[in-house]
Design goal:
By secondary structure, this protein is mostly beta strands. The chain has strands spanning about 35-40, 45-50. It has no helices and two strands.
Length: about 80
């Protein structure tokens, strides 16, 4: 499959945001690479790239949507 692009601007709010990606593997090899680029209100640029620090879980724990929720039960 080809990479997919998504416009997140309508979903972002000033301050902290949580970025979550749901994926399923149906038995084949799979991977995930993420790059988010944003121009902030003050003109500066923000860039986020997925790396080994990203976390995953089979089931999303309670409160995962809140940026201040500690990543309990998530794996690298």
């Amino acid at each position: 499959p080809s990479p997919r692009n998504h416009d997140l601007k309508p979903l972002l709010k000033p301050g902290a945001n949580t970025l979550a990606i749901e994926g399923r593997n149906e038995g084949a090899l799979a991977g995930l690479a993420v790059r988010l680029e944003a121009k902030l209100a003050d003109g500066s640029r923000f860039r986020l790239v997925s790396d080994e620090s990203w976390l995953c879980a089979n089931e999303a724990p309670e409160g995962w949507q809140k940026p201040e929720t500690p990543p309990s039960g998530w794996n690298k």
